[in-house]
Amino acid sequence: MEMEATISLLDMRLLVPELTLICVGLILMLLDLVVRKKELIAAVGIAGTLVAMYGTYKLYGFYNPQAAFAGMFVVDGYSNFFKLIFYLNIILTICISLKYMAIEKASFGEYYALLMFSSTGMMIMASAADLIILYLGLELMALSTYILAGFMRNQPRSNEAALKYFFLGAFSSAFLLYGISLTYGLTGTTNLKGIAEALSTLSIMDNPITYLGLIFIIVAFGFKIALVPFHMWAPDVYEGSPTSITAFMSVGPKAAGFAVLGRVLFDAFAGMQVQWAAILVPIAVLTMATGSIIALAQTNIKRMLAYSSIAHAGYMLLGIIAGTHDGLTSTVNYLMIYLFMNIGAFAIVIMLRREGVQGENLDDYMGLSKSHPLASALMLIFMFSLAGIPPTAGFVGKFYVFMEAINAGYVYMALIAVVFSAISAFFYLRVVMYMYMKDPVKEVELTTSPSMSIALAVTAMMVLIFGIFPSILLNLVRLSILG
Amino acid sequence: MVPLSWYIVLSAVMFSIGVFGFLARRNLLIIFISIELMLNSVNISLVAFSHYLQSMRGQILVFFVITVAAAEAAIGLAILIAYYKHNPTIKVDEINLLKG
Amino acid sequence: MTTPQLFFAYFAVAMTVLSLLVVTRRSPVHSIMWMLVLFIHIAALYLFLNAEFLAAIQIIVYAGAILVLFLFVIMMLNLKKEETAKKYQAQWPVSAGIAIILAAFLVLILGKIVVLPSLGEYSIEAVKTEGIMMTTGKVLYTEFLLPFEIASIVLLVAIIGAVVLAKKRIE
Hints:
Chain A is mainly α and 483 residues long.
């Protein structure tokens, strides 16, 4: 089963975007020593990300599938589209964190560097065609994110978030490794294509040990994506982490988890679709139910958005369960839309934070429309989108996922999802009601900055554009995945 | 000759003991050690597979697991110390600032 | 029972008992000391499986670096109170039940595992002609070059993380 090692220096060329981000991360840490203005560091970070994005887009063709390092690392439309999500995630996160981290008195250059390293890990995960690469990419992402979650080290909340995230993350990695070990033991390889071949040539698809390895791998990614019943860390970690990092990690690691889940299930375990769909169906139902119902009881907006994020992961899972490439397309489409609406919503939450005021309670939004009509209108757009109300992008995302589930014969799953989607609309609309139908009880001041305005403008515009012209995004995703 | 399944069963038993330690203990340091125990049990099964399959892949993966475990220990213990500075407890059921 | 099987039987019993000791000791220092003994057993088992390089790494990195780091942290934290506190969480019987069911389940399924795929090229004889170090090095720097590079970034992040989280406040 061992492959002949054919690796040349030329293989490095496919790594250019990842290497760019790592270099940018190192440069940012060095700049931090000589430059006092954090704006400059942030600007260099964004510029570097744009260079990496250009590399992904132009260097070897966006849709052109290529493999390197003896088939361990692949660059194709699928991975490149995920990389696009990660780049946008970095840029938007930097835009919304600039002022916020200064208020939290935790504005260090390492923050931006760690964003780069964490995203590099995600990119490696998206390109991984071998379980070893996948494991290392995951650890690179996870270790950087643990540090970012605990970045406000003078705040007990942030410390506790990092602690909980770390312990459950490390626990889940052990499960991932156990799954990898069993899969390796049965198939003799860790290469995803090799696993698929071995599963069929050795005819071990109905072997309970194969099944066990698959379950362990799904459980481990269930932790990363925060699927119920592996979600218990998510609300605490989302609430305690710096809000900008909550935005970052509710999109990035989740997207990376889905990228890997899609790759592993569709490439390595393609022949066992019936089996993994059977595992994922109850998980998806539980995830949607828990996310939607527990969110109703939340008064802290970060915690509410955490449960909302859990519920959204449940909807996204429908596309994977469908087991078709169209289903996968709808999930990836949803992830891109989720990026914009979720970071937009967190940007508004961040604006309410200022010296001495947390601004995370639902009460802080009372009568916001009277004093800040524009910010309220933007929040309205994001809440409508998260609830899935047309003409926002959130509706489009949900619509395609549900449609693909129905096309694949999971009509009951689509019905369940619609019901929970309707329940979840209640708590999103409650925020809108607080803003528009209640009288202000206290003076609310917003913290604004130019970068924040740009982030808000971009996210709101994208939510509306993708909502009104859904085919723009969907065609791009289709081209990326179907080739 | 020792059959492969013996090693794998030993590894499974150690893994389960690690899971027990993680779920049941109150002391965060011992919970962390339980995670290390789980990683080591996986390493045993990987090395055993590597030996019986006559392939190097498993051994190489163990090499990386040990590397990552070292990095994980450094970061995890740094987080633990940062936490301890504000809340002098490492009992897991007393860590409840965030709940709901 | 043949001699290797007796040898394995000793290791299996010793390692199970040591694992139980690790997770049930009250004091973290005792736990770590038992862990050290366990690591030495694991390293010996690696030798038994012809993984000499990993046996050395197990002692040098795991026992020499990671466990020492744990001991340093225990010294830094003042854990006098923990010595008398309850060892287990309130719901520990449930955890024990879960672990026992998991163990039974795994043993039941994995007890039947056999070698299925065709064997690779690294038989004991093939490795012996070059030596384990040479073989590992060759594989690591050719076929597994990319993971090796990623591991270096992981270690870099660990350094940055430890500095960021543990250094004194600037303001």
